[in-house]
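Continuing the series of single-chain predictions for the mutant panel. This is the parent chain; the variants come on the following pages.
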Amino acid sequence: MKRVNVTNARSKDYAAVLRKIQRDKVCPFCTEYFLIYHTKPIIKETKFWILTENFRPYVGAKHHLLAVSKKHTPHFAGISVAAQIELLSLFNNELKKRKIKGGTLLMRFGDTDYTGASVGHLHAQLISGSKRGKNTEPLLTAVGNKTRG
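Parent structure:
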């Protein structure tokens, strides 16, 4: 399985970062490399997760948090029930602290050629935008691929 998937980069500068990670032959979300490639400060570290702001937030997101599994696994099935519970608790605490009225929890898992993810290490995202109104449009991201036609 790929550590990073340059094809899924959302910008040229992010693709360049991913190509450097490919050359370095490391996983940028593994704890020993995380702070080398991720420039946002860690908000909280728990037994199973590292919580931070997303390095490349989606355009228009008011909040875009990233929870990275401390265990190197590409798949949701690779973490314990305790880790799953801790993830939801971590996000719930941030919802309260930041007074987020609505948002999306997103977790891509498995082969990045199927998911649209750029990093093949399990991570989850909490994303919140603006309230729908006259001058708003949806926040969009890839959640996988569909067959044309």
